[in-house]
Specification:
The chain is mainly alpha-helical. Helices cover 61% and strands 4% of the residues. It has a two-stranded antiparallel ribbon. Helix 2 packs antiparallel against helix 6 (140-164) and helix 3 packs antiparallel against helix 5 (107-133).
C-alpha cells in the first residue's frame, strides 16, 4: 500500500495516514466509526424505547410465556388440564372470601373485584383448554389474544390511575 490507504467493509471510505519522519516512531492507528444504516438506527430506537417502557409492557411477555407453557404442557403432560379445570373456580372463592372479610362499600371496588375474578377465571379456563386441546386449536388462539389485549389495557389503565392518585392509609 504505497499511498497508505485502506478500504473498510462498510463502504468506500479511505483513510490517508501521513508518513512518519522518524524511524523509531510508533505506528498510527485510526479508528473510523461506521455510520449505522437506517435499519440499524430504527432497531436501536425501537430497542431503546422498549427498554425505557419495559414496565408498561409486563403483561405481554407473561402472555407469551403462558402460550408457550401451555403448548409445552400439551405436548408433555396433557392430563394436567384435569388439574387446571377445577382451579377455574378459585377466583370466585377468592371473591366470596373477600366479600366476607373486607366488604367494599364503594360500588366501583365491587365491580373491579368481580371483573378481576371473571378475568382470572377465564384465564384459568383458557389454560386448561389450551393444555388439553393445544393452545392454537379452534378459537383458543383468538381467546388468548383477547385476554392478552385485555390484560395489557387493564395494566396500562391501572398504572395510569395509581400514578396520579394520592396514597391512602388503610386502617
Amino acid at each position: 500500500m504505497a499511498n497508505r490507504t485502506r478500504k473498510t467493509y462498510g463502504g468506500p471510505r479511505t483513510v490517508h495516514v501521513p508518513r512518519t519522519r522518524r524511524r523509531d516512531a510508533q505506528p498510527i492507528v485510526l479508528v473510523v466509526p461506521d455510520r449505522p444504516t437506517l435499519s440499524q438506527r430504527a432497531a436501536r430506537a425501537l430497542g431503546t424505547w422498549l427498554w425505557e417502557t419495559r414496565a408498561s409492557w409486563a403483561p405481554v411477555p407473561i402472555a407469551v410465556a403462558a402460550l408457550l407453557g401451555t403448548a409445552l404442557l400439551h405436548v408433555l403432560a396433557w392430563w394436567t388440564a384435569f388439574l387446571l379445570a377445577p382451579a377455574a373456580f378459585a377466583p370466585y372463592g377468592w371473591l366470596f372470601w373477600l366479600a366476607l372479610r373486607r366488604p367494599a362499600a364503594d360500588r366501583s371496588i365491587r365491580r373491579w373485584r368481580k371483573a378481576l375474578a371473571a378475568l382470572a377465571s377465564l384465564t384459568t379456563s383458557w389454560a386448561a383448554a389450551a393444555v388439553f386441546f393445544g393452545p392454537l386449536a379452534g378459537p383458543l388462539e383468538v381467546i388468548w389474544l383477547a385476554l392478552a389485549i385485555t390484560a395489557q389495557v387493564l395494566w396500562l389503565r391501572t398504572r395510569r390511575s395509581t400514578a396520579t392518585a394520592p396514597i391512602e392509609e388503610i386502617h
